[in-house]
Amino acid sequence: MFLHIGGEYVVLTKNIIAIMDMETTTVSKSTKEFLTVAEEEGFVESISNEIPKSFIITEVDKKSKIFLSPISSITLQKRTGFFKKR
After folding, report:
1. CA 3, CA 11: separation in Å to the nearest integer?
2. Domain limits, the chain
3. C-alpha distances in angstroms, 9 versus 34, 37, 59?
4. Under a CB-based contact definition with an 8 Å cutoff, are residues 5 and 71 in contact?
5. How do strand 16-21 and strand 54-60 relate by DSSP bridges?
6. pTM for the complete prediction?
7. C-alpha to C-alpha distance for 57 and 77, rounded to whole angstroms
8. Spacing of C-alpha 67 from chain mean position
9. pLDDT at residue 84 above 80?
10. What 8-state DSSP symbol labels residue 52?
11. How, if at all, do strands 63-69 and 44-46 pair?
C-alpha cells in the first residue's frame, strides 16, 4: 500500500520505519542531533516549502531516507491503517 506524505510524494508503507511528530520529538537533543547528521549526509528531503509537522523515516534497498512532511504524524498514521479503531 502507498502512503501520500504530501506534495507529489508517496512511499510504500512496507518501507516506513517510523512516522514522527516534529514538535514533540525534536525536543530531545538526540533527535535533533540525528536529524542534523542525517541532513549533513544527504538523507533528508523536504517535500514542501511549508513548515514540517512530521518526518518519515524510510528504508529502501538498505538505504535510509527521511522525508520532512507538512502533514501531521497523526494524519499520516491514520492513513496507513496501522491503528484501527476499536
Report:
1. 5
2. 2-80
3. 23, 23, 15
4. yes
5. antiparallel
6. 0.88
7. 13
8. 5
9. no
10. P
11. parallel
Q: How far apart are CA 21 and CA 73, in angstroms?
A: 5
Residue 63's alpha-carbon distances to 13, 15, 16, 70, in angstroms, are 15, 10, 12, 23
The cell 523515516 sits on which residue? 57
Return the C-alpha cell found at 59: 528504508
If you search the block for the grid coordinates 499520516, which residue do you land on? 76
For 80, the grid coordinates are 496507513
- Set of cell numbers at residue 29: 537533543
Model confidence pLDDT, tens digit, residues 41-54 = 999 999 999 999 99
Q: What is the pLDDT of residue 69?
A: 97
Q: Tell me which DSSP letter residue 51 carries.
A: P
Check if the beta carbon of residue 5 is closer than 8 Å to that of residue 11: yes
C-alpha span between 79 and 11 (Å, rounded): 12
Q: Cell triple for residue 84? A: 484501527
